[in-house]
Amino acid sequence: MSRKGVVCGVLVGVFAGWASAHADNPPIDRHALVTRHNVTLAGPDPLTPLSVGNGEFAFTADITGLQTFPEFHQRGMSLGTLSQWGWHSVPNPKGYSLADALNEYTVAGRKVPYAAGGSSSGGYSPAAEWLRANPHRLDLGRIGLHIVKADGSPIAIDDLAETTQTLDLWAGVLSSRFKVDGQPVDVATLCHPTRDLVAVRIESPLLASKRLSVRLAFPYGSTEWGQAARWDLAGRHTTVCRIVDRQADLTRTLDADRYYVRAAWSPGGWMQTRSQHEYEISGGDNARLEFVVAFSPKEIGDPMPAFDEVLAASTDHWRCFWLSGGAIDFSNCTDPRATELERRVVLSQYLMAIQCAGSRPPQETGLTCNSWYGKSHLEMHWWHGVHFALWNRLELLERSLSWYDSILPLAEGTAKSQGYDGARWPKMVGPDGRESPSSVGVFLIWQQPHPIYYAELCYRARPDRETLDRYRRIVFETAEFMASYAVWDETNRRYVLGPAMIPAQESYGSDRARNLNPTFELAYWRWALDVAQSWRQRLGMERHPKWDDILSHLARPAIRDGIYTGIETPPYTIRRDHPTMVAALGFVPAGPMVDPEVMKRTYDSILADWDWPSTWGWDYPMLAMTAARLGEPAKAVDALFLESPKNRYLANGHNYQAARLPLYLPGNGGLLTAVAMMVAGWDGCPEVSAPGFPKDGRWNVRYEGLRRMP
């Protein structure tokens, strides 16, 4: 048995032991909880493709179970085969570097370079444009069905009849069934849990009649926003294929980038080359075809598993996933919103596990399709990953934390170039850790405390010396920058944040050279520095005197007309975009920075007249967390269901934002974070069951295996 199988067996054994010891309070029937939210689709919808994946790799399919009709989904949610490692850069003939995209801003009387990328004529400079778009995440290849009608013409999506598709969450298997000219086609699609590999089984008489085959095609990379492939540049890349028996090895070269693909198929099948970048797998005389396709940044040496081996591995993996970690059962609740909340929670767990549990911080659209060239936004990593710790799946968060170690020298270099100590973390970033020029991103600061938050979650789960040693450098270098960034305001005898700076509520972007003391960032800054001091003490070190000085003298959030403003300086509060002043008590634990009574008035003022269409998917769980800490559980639930265009959850579980951004995983991750907090509680919460839910008799929430939020 594999090590993973042993671990899974131990976890399931512990679970069974708990059930035996608590027969009077039986555990949640996790199989029933999960499978009642299996996704079933009766027909094609451009917004509801379904994905299989493992956190490092994901494959998104249409109603056929493969990527047969990509054009249909271009007007909704794109199909793709994406990975954490699959990136491409177009040539850089002018040798652009970040130094070519710097603009200077005055900070406390000195000039500080920021990679704003502005040009003298307005907009981004050519250097900034190249640096923003490169590297870009790459669609590794398209795997689709090729089916022809009786007259030999290819089918269209409207030619499919009696379509039905089900995603079995408990096994990670996508089952698709349809008919063409009255002939049935059954397709099973799944992903290997530890290899970047897709396995497919097709059963249809159309295989034996030579009317159905599989097409494997490869694109060039795209520097267009939101795209991961160019199919019109065949001359810009090469595919070299070697076919031996029932296996093909393909080497893909795109400029200076290279990756490898191996395909293998069942007896009787065969592959032929249709063009340099397109290949066809046929079933021979059989009515069944099984094949597997693996993708890798290195030459593939491991033997290819058979379909049944992948099926067994996937079934074991997902059973282990659902039986470990936390669970919340809303089936005994009578509030009419409870069933939908449970659906969103279950599907969000699946989506975050396949999209956001990899070795690097994910992009906001995960491994489904590209946004912002496929790059990660580090301020969003909190929303992508914190829930894993609260749902007792800390290892899925920790997978990506080593990446901060790998880019630490670059972050330290950024801080030094700007005259600061410690490490300044980038915002929009590819796998190499190099900042992307931006008129907004490089001025954001709310991602800076995040690594301290992650480290603290790890310590709360494993309060030992090993954890302290593992994350101490990240914690201390982060805190060193934060302390160095704060500016002493001699006139008012206090430390201030900014300028140049843009708060999390990016509406103040045009005032970056004047913005001062955003409410959320002040509270988060103080909390993180205080935690960093605790880490020093846990390690037997003295408290840092400079950090204590800042903790004692950091500016307080501004209050106008009895409520917190967005920032201290004019225009004070813009009532659109993220209402992040509430995050100062919700996202951030209670502390001396925030008066709960003032926050209550602030919260209610936001509910009264905020521009909700301009908000984003993580704003609603952010509001829910604040309401919970304020002792307003009814408002917390209402926030999760706030009527807003971007608080929409599709049939596949994705949080829809707009046509430009049809999925938004920070919304899913935020939902899981808020609900875990509302159920398991937070530091200092009332000692009652599910303190974030109303005690009105309608929310009889059952839960197990969750961790309390700080």
Topology:
Blueprint: H1 3-21, H2 30-35, E1 39-41, E2 50-53, E3 57-61, H3 70-73, E4 80-83, E5 87-88, E6 103-107, E7 110-114, H4 126-133, E8 136-137, E9 142-147, E10 161-168, E11 173-180, E12 183-191, E13 197-203, H5 205-208, E14 212-217, E15 237-244, E16 247-254, E17 257-265, E18 270-275, E19 278-282, E20 288-296, H6 307-323, E21 327-329, H7 338-355, E22 376-377, H8 381-390, H9 394-398, H10 402-417, E23 428-429, H11 450-461, H12 465-485, E24 487-489, E25 494-496, H13 519-538, H14 545-553, E26 559-560, E27 563-564, H15 596-609, H16 619-629, H17 633-640, E28 648-649, E29 655-656, H18 665-680, E30 702-704
Antiparallel strand pairs: 1-10, 2-3, 3-4, 5-8, 6-7, 9-14, 10-11, 11-12, 12-13, 13-20, 14-19, 15-16, 16-17, 17-20, 18-19, 21-30, 22-23, 24-25, 26-27, 28-29
Helix pairs in contact: 1-6, 7-18, 8-11, 8-18, 11-12, 12-13, 13-14, 16-17, 16-18
Instruction: State the helical fraction.
Output: 25-40%
Give the end-to-end Cα distance, rounded to a whole number of Å: 38 Å
| Rg, nearest Å | 26 Å
User: What is the highest CATH level, the class of the largest domain?
Assistant: Mainly Alpha
- How many distinct beta strands? 30
Write structural notes for this entry.
- This protein has 18 helices and 30 strands.
- It is globular and about 85 Å long.
- By secondary structure, the chain is α+β, with helices and mostly antiparallel strands.
- The protein has a nine-stranded antiparallel beta sheet with strand order 1-10-11-12-13-20-17-16-15. Strands 9-14-19-18 form a four-stranded antiparallel beta sheet.
- Strand 18 and strand 19 form a beta hairpin.
